[in-house]
Description:
Rossmann fold, binds glutamine, two-stranded antiparallel ribbon
Amino acid sequence: MQRSQGAWKISDLLEHAASMLSEAGVDTPHTDAERLLENCLEMSRTELYLRAENTVGAAQERRCLAMLKRRCGREPLAYITGECEFWSYAFEVNPAVLIPRPETELLIERVARQNGNRYGPGKCLDLCCGSGVIAIVLALELDLEVIALDISREALEVCRSNCVRHGVENKVQLVEANLTSCFTEHTQFTLITANPPYVSRTEMESGLQPEVIDFEPCLALDGGHDGLQLIKAIVAALPAVLAPGGDLFMEIGADQGAAVMRLLRESACADLYQFIDIIKDYGGRDRLVQVRKNI
Ligand code: GLN
């Protein structure tokens, strides 16, 4: 790639970045190159093209090339920029938390689709909250008060800073705990959400992209040999912590629908739940389970 008078033109840098990323095996080299430059040069995507002939300053060039090197090592873009978008809000992320996936927006959609005041007043519970995207979006969009719970203190720090960023510190309470073990016998919630780790050992060992397995926290992904270890624990705790008429919305793996349905049916007496629904995502794969407890 030629440099004009020692400096990169934006268009050349874009092309160089895309070709390096493609060589490194990144799935979406052009989009990633654009997002990298948007971040380094503090420009929108449109500006990158409008100013394609402009040259890049030395400091910006160094920054871009350093970021490009990390991305070529397959580090996820969200960890490099420190940010990720979920439900059109920007959230801070770092390697202590899973990068929120677009599929998880389905959980928010389904909660939002329920009757207006179904879950208030009183606190809702978000298990395995990680960066806090579910709890924070529920607080912002549905005006709910939420306990965001995680076993990882580092993850809760990220969640705390996202609460501050979105001004919901007074609506989201952080709790460090192993699932529901911290609650007294009589604590119940009308809404429980969860995106627990659900990746099976086989997938952990061979089925994941380097971005995921080499950089994202194992604690947030590893669901034990069948991927169901945490899901089983949540299902076992559910009869005690779900209030009458309350809902659980839990994300599950693409092939876990039947197993999760079986677990729920076997875990409770026949009339404990009004219904159990496996909900598919827009790609037609199992993605969520909704469980409503009888009144
Ligand atoms: N969906 C994530 C993945 O694709 C896994 C998230 C989880 O285990 N909760 O890796």
